Amino acid sequence: MTTPSGAKRDLRPAGCGGDGCSARDPWPLHHVRHRTVFCRLCTSCVLRYHPGSFCVSCFDLLLDGGGASPVVRCSRCSSIAHSACVLEAAPSFVCPSCSDAGGSSSYFSLGEEKSIDLKSAKVLLAAAKLAAASMGRVAACTRADAERKTKEAVVARKRAREALEKVLLLSQSEKEKKNRVADQIAAPSPQPQVVDSKKKMPKLSSTVAAMVGQKRVQNRERDRWMRFQEPIGMGQTLVQGTDKNKWRGMKEESSKVLKVGMLRRKKLLLLADCGPVVSDRLKVNILTIKCSMLQRISHVLYSCFSDGTNCAAVNASP
């Protein structure tokens, strides 16, 4: 859909945008920012929007140092003029705009030929400088605003990057935590062993412990029954009145009994090394042998003493 030319003129008017301006097709138009609003004004409207910035008689800008000389203010508005340029007294000074308030006064009026004289050139130069200063201030403010926004954008970008890195680290840690939990569920970790400060002996296996216990029992039984290998001391004193040959025979008989008993005990002790199954039977046999040995020894001693007594009685008889 094509846009008509009239709509374009409405969107961007070609005339002056000043309030109460009656100029028709003004030339040139200046870009000025007035009260935070961008406007396209003619030369006269630019000067009317900046009444205290130039001399209304010579059109010298006071911003360039033209205010060093004394000035006179208008009694009706804020316009100023150099004292040297004004012929009237200061209290009764009225600017051209206020003096021709009812008429259509203009600082920059061109004829049909649009010729520019010295006064028009000064007016155009003053308006152009004021417009340039206004747009320079706008450019400085815009530049400062752009730099501020650039710094804010850099800070925001840095914060966004840090936030993304933090989110990435959190996601990785959460993923690792889930993996550890899954691994623990799949293969439970062994219970931690409590290490005692004191050194403990290493535990033996059940087979080795049984063999060690069996060996200790066998050694204890051997030490216990080896005591019977010691020879029993016999009295060396002879009974009065006994025969030496008979006493020698009884002594040989008792030593023979001891030797037989010792040989039997050795055989039994050798059999005891075969295992704990035979040890109970060996104990019974050893006790039986011990009783029989004691019985025979006591019988020999009894017969010895009884014979000695009889011999003594026979020798004592007449």
Automatic annotation (TrEMBL):
Q: Where is the Phorbol-ester/DAG-type domain?
A: 29-95
Q: Which domain of life is it from?
A: Eukaryota
Membrane spanning segments where?
A: none
UniProt-annotated stretches for the region Disordered: 179-200
Q: Which InterPro entries match?
A: PKC_DAG/PE
PANTHER family in the record: PHD FINGER FAMILY PROTEIN
The protein in question is named Phorbol-ester/DAG-type domain-containing protein
This protein's species is Musa troglodytarum (fe'i banana)
Q: Tell me the lineage of the source organism.
A: Eukaryota, Viridiplantae, Streptophyta, Embryophyta, Tracheophyta
